[in-house]
Amino acid sequence: SSGINAEYGEVQMFSRRKLKLLAGAAATTYLLKNPDSYDFIEQNVLLPISHCLPPEVAHKCALWSIKLRIPPRNDLFKPNMLRTTVFGVHFDNPIGLAAGFDKNCEAITGLQRLGFGFVEGGSVTPLPQPGNDQPRVFRLLEDRAVINRYGFPSVGADAVAKNFQPTFNLITITVEEVPDEKLQRFFEAHHPPPPPPLKPSPKSEDPNSATYRLDFRSKFSQSLIQKFLMPSTCKVGINLGINKTSNNPTNDYCVGVEKLGHYADYVVVNVSSPNTPGLRDLQRKSQLEKMLKHITRRVEKKNKASGGMSCKALLLKISPDLNDEDLQDVIDVVMDPKYGVKGLIVSNTTISRPASLKNSSKGEKGGLSGPPLKNLSTEMIKKVFRMTDGRVPIIGVGGVSSAEDVYEKIRAGASLVQLYTGLVYEGLGLVRRMKTELCELLARDGFLNVQLAVGADVPDVSNKSIHDIFKGFENFHRPFLPLELPPVLGDTPSTQSDLVLGSELLGNKSEEEKSVNESDEPPSDEN
Prior knowledge:
Blueprint: H1 2-33, H2 35-50, H3 55-67, E1 84-86, E2 89-91, E3 95-97, H4 108-112, E4 118-124, E5 137-140, E6 145-148, H5 157-164, E7 170-174, H6 181-189, E8 211-215, H7 219-229, E9 235-240, H8 249-260, E10 266-270, H9 285-306, E11 314-318, H10 324-335, E12 341-346, E13 367-369, H11 371-387, E14 394-397, H12 403-412, E15 416-419, H13 421-426, H14 430-444, H15 464-469, H16 496-507, H17 511-519
Parallel strand pairs: 3-4, 3-15, 4-9, 7-8, 9-10, 10-11, 11-12, 12-14, 14-15
Antiparallel strand pairs: 1-2, 5-6, 6-13
Helix pairs in contact: 1-2, 5-8, 8-9, 11-12, 12-14
C-alpha cells in the first residue's frame, strides 16, 4: 500500500505541476495579448533586455516576434478624424512605419496589425546582396538616436515577391453558431456590438491574391473574427534600392517596380541613402529626369501589356542634406507631371553630426536618425511644402518619437508621417498612444480631420486641395466647425461626439471673438 500511495503522490504532484504550467502559460498569453499589460512588460522588461543586446540582434528578435504575431493587435481603433486620402490612397491614420525595419517584407502581415496606417518594406534590391560589413548599427543611448550603415542588405526582388504571395488562393473561414447561450450572453454584455457582417467577396481573377469568405453566424463569432482573424486595412509601401555593384541604377529601379509594384499601394525610389556609393548623385536634375522618364515609360508599357496597375503611386525619397539649389532642381522634376511622381518622402538619414551629440559612437560613419534629425527634417518639410505651394503630398520622416512630433510635422506640411528609431526607445506600444494623443491634439486646435491641419504652420502657403473643398472659408487653418466632413476627408461623416467636442472648443472663445463670429455672414452656396 505504501508503494501505491507513493505512486499516487507522484501522479498528484505531476498533475499540480502541469496545472501550474498551464496556468502560467494562460497568464502569459493574456498579458502579452492585452495592450496595457504588454506595454508595461515592454517598457520594464523587453526594452531594457534588448538594449543589452547588439543592435542588429535585437532588431532580428523584434522582427521575429512580430512575424509570429506575439504583440497584441492594435489596428481596430480607427477614429474618423485620423482618416485621410493621399495620392489617391485611403489611410486609416497618417502614422506609418519607415523603410528599414522589415527589409525583406517577411513580417508585413504582423506589422499591419500594430496600428500603423501604412508600413513600408525594404529597401529591396533586384539581386541579393549582404550589405556592408558588421558592425553597421550603433545606438546612441544618451541621444536616443541611431547611426546605421547597412548598405541595402536584401534577399532580392524575387524572394521578396514570394513573401507577398499567400499560401492559399482561397481562404475560407466559417464560424458556426455557439451552442452555449449563457456564454454568448456573457460575451455580449462585456463587449461592444461588433460591426455588421461582411459580404462574401467574389473570387479574384488574380491567382496570387487571396479571397476571404467570412461566414458570420453569431455576435460571438463576429467578435472573435474581428479580434483575431479579420484582415488588416493597413496600407503597404515598398522602398526600392540599387545593387552596390550595379552599373545601371535606372534598370535596377525598373526591375523593382515591375516585380513588386503590383503588391504595394505605393512604391518609393530611394535616391538618398548615404550608405551606397554614388546613390545621392542620382538626385541631380539631369540624372533624375532621365531615370524617372525611363521608369515611367516602363511602367506604362507594363500596364498596357497586363491591363492592370503595376504601380499605383510612385514616390521619391530625398536627403535632408540637399542645398537649396539642388532641392529646387528636385522640386522642378517632381512638379512636372510627365515624370509621374505622386509625392515626396522627406527625409532620409543625415550624414551631418550636430554638436549636441554625447555618445562616444557619434563619429561612426553612416546615416544619423532620431531626435537629432527632427528639426532638420521638419524645416525641410516646411521648405518643400512652400516650394511646391502645397500641391505635392509629403511623407515626413525624421526624429518622430511622440504624438507631438507627428503633429509638428503635419502642421509643417506633411500629409503622412513615418517613424522607426522612436520604436527602438519607446517600444511598439508607441503607435497606439500616438493615435490617441494625436486625436487630442487635433481636437484641442479645433481640427475635425487631420487633413485640415496639413501645413497649418506655413501661413504663406494656401493648401489648394483644402481650398477647393472649403470654398468660402477664409483662413481655413483657423479652427472652425463644418457641419459635416466632405467624403474625400473621411469615409463616414463626423460622429456626434466630434461635433460636441468641436462646439465645446469653439465655446471657449472670448466674448469679443464670439460677437465677431456672430456678425460674420455664412458663405453662400455659390462659393
